């Protein structure tokens, strides 16, 4: 995933103080206390067929998100963009590095990602474990399940390791050239992250990542006959 194998969706670029103030106040309007732990629609882009949702848990330490999108591309192509680990950094939110660490089988692998952090906070990195559930006509979808494994390799200097991340990404073919993508999960970025940064990431990262994914699907070519590195169909 990279959703959204991802959304790791833990970093944001620097924003000015007025922008931070606006983000916090916007989120207060859509996150009343009475709706904690309930999904709230944040983005509804009818033109691009992207909806994103957020949820605030009680401890406030995790970024919860949900995505419902239709991607203009076949299920195989959307999946292969996720499986192209080295190029995830070209479309995933604020990602500076992405690379495969270990291929266990055509249904399981480990990979590395690093991210830009907001100004004055250390950058982050994550070690992620992905399990692929290939498509079958009986199920009607394929799925990638991603979770963080922070102890898989030693920490790197000047980087804070993501401590927890669970994301499920489901790909359902709509037509030959359209794929329904659903992703849901959370990220615990580890260390100290300002509240405004957590809110900004939660609200913007999933949508921006979907825009990047759509662009990659539209512009990336895979040679006919080249096998996928991981299973797409049973």
Automatic annotation (TrEMBL):
Q: Which organism is it from?
A: Fluviicoccus keumensis
Q: Which SUPFAM superfamilies match?
A: Bet v1-like
Q: Which of UniProt's keywords are assigned here?
A: Signal
Signal peptide feature range: 1-22
Its transmembrane ranges are none
User: What name has this protein been given in UniProt?
Assistant: START domain-containing protein
Q: Name one GO molecular function term.
A: lipid binding
Q: Which residues form the START domain?
A: 31-218
UniProt xrefs under Pfam families: START (PF01852)
